[in-house]
Amino acid sequence: MVDTARAGDWRILREHKTGYLKVLKVERMGVNGREVGFFKYASPAKQAKYIGPLVANELIANRLGQLLHLPMARTELAHVKDRLGIVSVMHPGKGLQTWADLKEGIRKEVGRHLTDPRRLERTFVFDAWICNIDRSGKNIMVYKQGDRLDFYLIDHELSLLGAVKFENKPWNAPYWDNIRRYTRGYHPALLSHATRYEPFEPHIAEIQRLEPGVIRSVLDSCPSVVLSESDRALTEELLLLRQKKLAKIIARCVQET
Ligand SMILES: Nc1ncnc2c1ncn2[C@@H]1O[C@H](COP(=O)(O)OP(=O)(O)OP(=O)(O)O)[C@@H](O)[C@H]1O
Ligand SMILES: [Mg+2]
Predict the structure, then answer these.
(1) Which residues lie across from 85 on neighbouring strands?
(2) Which ligand ends up closest to the CA of 155?
(3) Ligand closest to CA 16
(4) Can you list the domains of the chain with their CATH numbers?
């Protein structure tokens, strides 16, 4: 399921970002030409202290998003500089920019400019399911599609056990039922669009239709080197519990607008 066939082919171009996690810009020749991506990894010490199983969180969120027909950045397990991490592949589309960089007039009415605005609603519900605390405007990439805009999603490190570790709250604490509270301080790009419950209903139902066996197979696609058995079991419990509670979580968020 995870494409590791060409892992190791990536060449470092430069450091893209420093900070508590380093992100390296990388490239390789793919079957359809040059590909550019962004490599990140966390040391065992950083995982234990701040961020949990980063690589697994990225892979699991990515695979679940794909199952829900969300536009996820292509994300691969990769070895770069002897580190096992993930590469998030850059879309070759024209006019690539972050949601945060969109002109304010466009951002406010972005639904009118997108090829498929319902995917924004689906993204919001998906983020609620996986406890993503960081859907900031820097983690939605927008590009031109004809005379409209399309988007894809990056950076799911602060979801699942990453969010749990970072916020230092037990995975099943009531804290996680209040989206507005746990995203406070993270500048969520989509929260201001969550004003009515009805548009979210079909997306909630779609997530609730995912069979436990399908969720389990996504978890099982993560190699044990990036996800311990105990973290795998916790992630599964988290996903199954929030799948059940999703309608209530979204309804509460909308009521508190
Ligand atoms: N698929 C992609 N397409 C375009 N740019 C990307 C992609 N993946 C990562 N990037 C770039 O790399 C940056 C860092 O990646 P990412 O957001 O995953 O890491 P991060 O450590 O959480 O960074 P930040 O703290 O800035 O959110 C992004 O802000 C973006 O500029
Ligand atoms: Mg980011």
Answers:
(1) 78
(2) 1
(3) 1
(4) 11-255 (1.10.1070)
